[in-house]
Amino acid sequence: MQHYQKDIIIIGAGLSGLLTAWRVLEENPDITLTLIEGSDKIGGDHTWSFNWSDLIPEVQSWAKEFVVYEWDKYDVKFPKRERQLDITYCTGNSDSLRACVQPLIDNGRLKLMLKTKVTQTSADSVTLASGKILKTGWVLDARGFEPKDTNYLGYQKFVGRTIKTKAPHGLKYPIIMDATVDQIGGYRFVYCLPFTEHEVLVEDTYYTDGPELSENEIHARLDSYISDKGWDDHEIIRQEKGVLPITLAIDSARFDELAHESGRATPIGIRGGYYHAVTGYSLPQAMKSAWLIADKIKEDGGRLGAAQAEMDQHEYDHYREEKFLRLLNRMLFRAAKPEKRYKVLQRFYGFQKDLIERFYAGQYSRKDQLRILIGRPPVPIHKALKNFKEADFIANEKAQ
Ligand SMILES: Cc1cc2nc3c(=O)[nH]c(=O)nc-3n(C[C@H](O)[C@H](O)[C@H](O)COP(=O)(O)OP(=O)(O)OC[C@H]3O[C@@H](n4cnc5c(N)ncnc54)[C@H](O)[C@@H]3O)c2cc1C
Questions:
Q1: What integer is the mean pLDDT of 9-32?
Q2: Which of 25, 356, 373, 387 has the fewest beta carbons under 10 Å from its own?
């Protein structure tokens, strides 16, 4: 047994692990922190994008250090709607994230254990694959996505390439959704992020029921989209792929049981369910959790107990706040026919810009919810009613 006094261990040096380490150490000079990472480097190889308005005000000035690209508008395209929205969109990446924490590594406050797999956790200890047990003040589990029997899921799946075109590609602003493409097997769109005049990330994305990713098929569709845009003359700089969970329902009784398991490590990031239920994106939530933890420790004079309690409450609040988003997902995945799912989004992007921003930021009011649901939702009413209540939906799923 090796004892770490008065400090924190975070397992997983991905997005949420690093953001939390960064914020906690910057705000709390007396805390030391160890990050345990299974791979040989921190931060992986990612780009992470978000609407600026998705961030809570408390983290906005802090987030600036992480952002590499920023656009003051973006476009969406559907068969019957094209629109440019004055919403600031930002992207950071693994390099910028590593740069944010590097000073803390250099001054010895952030200790790293790389190529170290964790096999078991509790609130104050971790067991490594080697069998060694480390004791600490508080364990935060940031190991990324893990399916749970509480959650009923659909998936957002994508394959993306950053290409460098020989001639300028001609895009000034991101296209967040180009859903004018063929709708195959579910809601499909292409996402384009123009990093420079010659560099653009092109990502083919699907909302489908299962998690399988047919990479070859998607690559072929990407080839065809890139060719249609006239970007044939290019080199590929980077590729990425992802299968993100989209939550349709959470079994409240099981959720309570798991949340009240005594002595468990505190989950953060995707592991803790902190992502936007409709988009699968987690950066704004990861920043919020990091701020909450750092702030509570500071407020409580460097003690960890209040922050632990705060995170238990935060997990529950997040679960409750996303109830409406889960309902929308059930409409998208279970009520709308796969080839018609795009109509749900086409209609959504007809709403006022402020409502769209509030929706992505999870700040929607009761009135916003009604505005989104009432009117002419492009889903059959009997299917909508069947999937309306979370508990009924779960009972139906279990019965099948
Ligand atoms: C390709 C891709 C693009 C995405 N783009 C966006 C985006 O633009 N915007 C957005 O908000 N979200 C995006 N997401 C979703 C989400 O933000 C990311 O998945 C994000 O990285 C999740 O952060 P996390 O810290 O929870 O997990 P991760 O960043 O996945 O970090 C988990 C870490 O834990 C380590 N680990 C796992 N198991 C162990 C173990 N047993 N022991 C030790 N270490 C372990 C892993 O090696 C990894 O480093 C994207 C996801 C993917 C896959």
A1: 96
A2: 373
- Our measurement of the distance from residue 209's CA atom to the centroid of its chain's CA atoms, rounded to an integer in Å, reads 18
Amino acid (1-letter code) at residue 120: Q
- Per-residue DSSP letter, 349: T
Lookup result for tokens 């099981």: 254
Q: Ligand 1 pocket test: which of 281, 288, 318, 360 has the largest number of ligand atoms within 8 Å of its C-beta?
A: 281
Stretch 10-24: mean pLDDT, rounded?
98
For the chain, the straight-line distance linking the first and the last C-alpha, in angstroms and rounded, comes to 48
Q: Which of 117, 162, 270, 318 to mutate to test the pocket of ligand 1 (most atoms within 8 A of CB)?
A: 270
Between the CA of 158 and the centroid of ligand 1 the distance, in Å, is: 15
Look up tokens 């007809």; give the residue.
350
Q: Is 165 touching ligand 1 by the criterion CB < 6 Å?
A: no
Domain 2-49+59-66+92-148+251-321, what architecture? Answer: 3-Layer(bba) Sandwich (3.50)
Which of 53, 192, 282 for a ligand 1 pocket mutation test, highest count of atoms within 8 Å of Cβ? 282
User: Which CATH code of 2.40.10, 3.30.70, 1.10.357, 3.20.20 fits the domain covering 151-247?
Assistant: 3.30.70
Look at residue 381 and tell me whether its pLDDT is greater than 80: no
Query: Is beta strand 47-51 parallel, antiparallel or unpaired with respect to 67-71?
Result: unpaired
**Is pLDDT above 90 for 400?**
no
Query: Is residue 5 within 8 Å of 135, Cβ to Cβ?
Result: no
Pocket flag, ligand 1, residue 43 (CB < 6 Å): no
Report the nearest atom of ligand 1 relative to the CA of 16. 25
16 CB less than 6 Å from ligand 1? yes
Residues 154-161: what's their mean pLDDT? Answer: 94
Residue 53 to residue 60: CA distance in whole angstroms: 9
pLDDT at 3: 39
The domain segmentation of the chain, as residue ranges, is 2-49+59-66+92-148+251-321, 151-247, 326-399
